[in-house]
Specification:
This protein has 107 residues and is α+β, with helices and mostly antiparallel strands. It contains 3 helices and 6 strands. A hairpin with a 3-residue loop joins strand 2 and strand 3. The longest helix is centred in the last third of the chain and has 16 residues.
């Protein structure tokens, strides 16, 4: 919800895995919403970069054709991916991106 404050919705960390081609996005501060039809017995996934600015990194093994291999926060997403994720990430990330871009322009 901000760079230094996190909500910890217990179900996300325990039951939803990362994917570079997620079937869910973030709706509001802590709700997942399907991005497409999710089939019976299909794993529910979201891109962990949809909820964190820059506070993590790990090697990805999702197996998707578009796998980024090294997963880090939203700050490090390619611009094309950020555009694709507009409106389906934690709202504070889009605010931080605006602030981040304004600070870069001032330099």
């Amino acid at each position: 919800i901000s760079p230094f404050a996190y909500l910890d919705p217990k179900f996300l960390g325990k039951y939803v895995n990362h994917s570079c081609k997620p079937n869910c996005g973030v709706n509001g501060r802590q709700t997942l919403a399907a991005l497409r039809k999710i089939h019976v017995n299909e794993e529910i996934t979201y891109d962990y970069a949809m909820t964190d600015w820059d506070n993590f990194s790990f090697n990805c093994n999702c197996g998707e054709d578009n796998c980024r291999e090294l997963i880090r926060g939203y700050k490090f997403l390619p611009q094309k991916k950020r555009e694709e994720y507009t409106g389906i990430v934690s709202p504070y990330l889009e605010k931080l991106e605006i602030e981040f871009n304004q600070n870069i322009r001032r330099l």
